[in-house]
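Q: How would the structure tokens look for this protein?
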Amino acid sequence: ADIQGPLPTGYAAEAEFTPPIVSVRGPSTEMDDLKEILVPLDLGEVTGAATRELQTPLTLPSGVEATPPQVLAHVRVDLKRKTVNVTRTVQTETPASVDTYIRPAKVKIAVAMPEAIVAGAGENKEIRAFVTLPERQLGTYTLPVRVSLPEGAQIIDIDPAEVSVTLEQKN
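A: Here is the predicted structure in token form.
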């Protein structure tokens, strides 16, 4: 894609085309040098995260024709993201009369975050791992790890995805 117009700082664009393949024909002198077909996309009015569909003609060398002569571009503009890996202690809330043992006590979390907030990801207190204890009796349970994240972040992976939680009466 030949993206025209500046994108907002910290944003990137991705495009998919329908159809994804076009047929081209023309003089062999032009076809021999044809390595790619440019699809001009004007995103000048985009000021933040957006999805656009644009019907756009193809940019071809003189004498070269494409079938179809234009494509539908599905364009997504979003924050540039970076994947970070953090380790967190699994947290839970239990009554004071109960001892809680979580194994393993720590999980590794892979998070895709906007580049603007990646710098402090390791210390970011908004990234929390926890388990939710429904009204349960004493015993041992396998529970899914849940994660809270800062705005704009997405979970890629949690390892392990489940932990063993043992609830025992305090002596």
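The chain has a mean pLDDT of 87.

Residues 28-31 form the longest helix (4 residues).

Upvote if useful.
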